[in-house]
Amino acid sequence: MDTERSDAELIELILAGGQEAYAELMRRHHPRVFGLCLSMLGDRAQAEDAAQDVFLKAYRRLSDFRGDAALSTWLYRVAANRCLDLLRRTARRREESWEAFVEREGDGLRRLLAEPAAEAPLVSEDAELVGRVLAQLPDDYRLILTLREIEGLDYRELTRALDCSMDSVKAKLRRARGKFREILGHIEPDENVSPARTKNGPR
Amino acid sequence: MDHDKMRSALSALRDGELDGPAKKTVARHVEACPDCRAELRSWERASRAFLRRPSRPTSAETERCVRSVMARLAAPAASASWWDVLVSSSWLTPALGLASVALVLSFLPYGGLAALEPVFVAQGYELSLAPARRVPAAGVAEAVGLSDDVR
User: Fold this and answer.
1) Residue A183 lies in domain
2) Distance (Å, rounded) from C-alpha A140 to C-alpha A149?
3) What is the model's pTM?
4) What sign does the dihedral A158-A162-A166-A167 (CA atoms) show?
């Protein structure tokens, strides 16, 4: 019975000229790469194209992969850079202000907030609401929250995926969550946490 | 630990990235601090509502990606644009850079080129910028009324 080849074995084969082994590698990692692209770009067709770009770039740079992190983390890095690049290029013009959107869709947004954790993926209308909320976040905040909360990378993996220090990861996550809470405050103003307390608050 | 530091550790607590003693300290604080509890709760609600895993790719979508990428890898000469080849060449880009510099320098007026002399000297090059003088043949200078300082 054939056992599944490891990423390291497949990479060795690929670098030795075995291009077909790359197909196996892609099948293994496509769900992750596609998932990140879809979370960031919000559109399935764009996510498909972006995932292809990621795997093409990864193939050309495979000799740069040193193996000191998991291949999946390295692929996340390539995918993150691609998504950020695409988002920078896209002129995201909004016909409606965020405030007008919250006023119009407030009930739907509050329903999403009130729902318990759901295993099933979002229906398309809810996915559009979610996409609009996430679009309020700066792209790098959206990225780090996606990698941490959806893809489940720990802090060490985040330093590798984002090519930054541990302190930078911690600071960025704090700021991203703070920004997310501000956004939440527009949807549910009564749930706003009170401003930062003084230094001598309760221990 | 003061409250601001506790608050700044909430993120790490949520992510399970605090070690034993720090985790206990921050967790104890959260139990006693309604603001920090509310903050953690709001993150949890926001994450649950808006940071959901999207639907996985179908096997058809995965195979489409694999086929497309493998096809492009099999025909690199046909599919790569000249820009892709240029950027991926390790020697071509620096060579083009140097050629561009040389081209720009060739169009610089004398004054501009003279201003660059210290740069070249610092790099160990001599830059001879003395303008060429055409010395008229003997006797011609007097005949055309050229003064000594322009001969």
Assistant:
1) 96-189
2) 14
3) 0.72
4) negative
The answer to the question of residue A195 being in a domain is: no
Task: Answer whether residue B104 shows pLDDT above 80.
Answer: no
Checking ipTM against 0.90, whether it exceeds it is no
Which residues in chain A land under pLDDT 70?
1-2, 91-95, 116-123, 190-203
Taking CB atoms and an 8 Å cutoff, what residues of chain A touch B46? 113, 180-181, 183-184
CATH number at residue A13: 1.10.1740.10
Query: Among A152-156, A170-174, B28-32, B95-99, where is mean pLDDT lowest?
Result: B95-99
How far apart CA B113 and CA A81 sit, in angstroms, is: 41
Distance between CA atoms of residues A31 and A58, nearest Å: 15
Interface probe with B: pick from A54, A102, A113, most Cβ of B within 10 Å: A113
Domain boundary (A71, A92, A113) is at A92
Distance from C-alpha of A21 to C-alpha of A76, rounded to nearest angstrom: 20
Q: Are residues A88 and A100 in the same domain?
A: no
